[in-house]
Amino acid sequence: MTAWVIDASVAAKWLLPEDGSNQGSALLGDELLVPDLLFAELANIFWKKQMRGEIDTATADAAARWLRQAPLQVHPCAGLTAEAVDLGALLVLLGGRAAGERH
After folding, report:
1. Is the pLDDT of residue 40 over 90?
2. CB atoms < 10 A from the CB of 92, how many?
3. Considering its fold, how many domains does the chain have in total?
4. Of the four, 37, 45, 61, 97, which is 20 to 30 A from 8 by CA?
């Protein structure tokens, strides 16, 4: 079984019809690791889609209910901050560039 670290953009594809939903759903049989921030990010996605009229309240509520019972391994973000900063510094040293930065 493959393990994947999933962010809110991928999880939203499981729950709401959008581009890439089939690819996102293909991961559901694997081990899924998520940051605890995922739940707040998805709540924000659901709210924005409701405000734009893309989904109704019942759809958002059903997605939130499904998410609560999903087979996810939730990991707290707070403990990863130092490692993330260290990794970012290493990437800078190796000549990496931030996403969207011009060359």
Report:
1. yes
2. 11
3. 1
4. 97
